[in-house]
Amino acid sequence: MPTPADRGEDKGTDKGTDTGDRAARRAVTVFPVLVLVAGALGLALPGAFAEWKTSVPYLLGIVMFCMGLTMTPLDFKGVAKRPWAVALGLVAHYVIMPGLGWLIAHALGLPPQLAAGVILVGCAPSGTASNVVTYLARGDVALSVSVATVSTVLAPLVTPPLTLLLAGEYLPVDAGSMVTDILKTVLLPVLAGLLLRLCAGRVIDRVLGALPWLSAVTISVIVAVVVAGSASAIKSAAALVLLAVVLHNGLGLALGYAAGKVSGLGKPASRAMAFEVGMQNSGLAASLATAHFSPLAALPAAVFSVWHNVSGALVAAWMARRSRKA
Prior knowledge:
Blueprint: H1 18-44, H2 56-70, H3 73-81, H4 83-107, H5 112-123, H6 130-136, H7 141-167, H8 175-199, H9 201-205, H10 211-229, H11 231-262, H12 267-278, H13 282-292, H14 299-325
Keywords: Membrane, Transmembrane, Transmembrane helix
Subcellular location: Membrane
Pfam families: SBF
């Protein structure tokens, strides 16, 4: 999610301070470690998290509430200023990642539960860490924030029908119930957080620095619960799921960047497009998969939570280095 140092009319220049840069790097570095530890705990002690399954939607609500608290009206003004670029980012996100999920599921011959899980990850909105990674890559943070914000708001309208269209051949999909769940666990908490920020901005500003860490810990708990629920099947499916996730994320990053370049958006905006397409709200995907499919179907989302932050940080470092050389 965006931090105060990240948000603004950043066009890929060095507007962030050294302090903000170091804080962002710490967040992106520590988050995958937390998720890895949580996954290991879920695998080693599945019984300890067995009763937590019903808590996953509420945990996701906490993450989305924190995201709402970081938002300001500037995020929505950015959409009005650059509607073409934001629309391109939304189309690229909701076409490339769902399509890739379906293609990868078919190409690898994934079992129905895992195939539906991979496709559901692809149909989710942009990841909450994409703005920070765009900042580290010296990308267009304002565009990244706008695309992430609108993709999250549109998720109740877009994610369920896409999942029904692409994953319906593998498992029954109750799109209507999924719409209700996304409204309750994503849109309402985000709007509540935004409203609280508008009403008590000075108070919220004092705790903004803690919000990414609260979100990271909460997502880690979600991963632990998901992994614990499918611990018995992980040993046989882990390699296949990891391959699917790496392909999904890697191709998403590459095609997102290509979409920006082909559309003539320029390098900073293309970097933002790469992360807005390739990084997903895997916490939402895990929650929906657990509620509507099975814990095994949520496994791709749990693995994606770890991998897209690792790959995102590495790609961002590479892009930033190329930018400095240029």
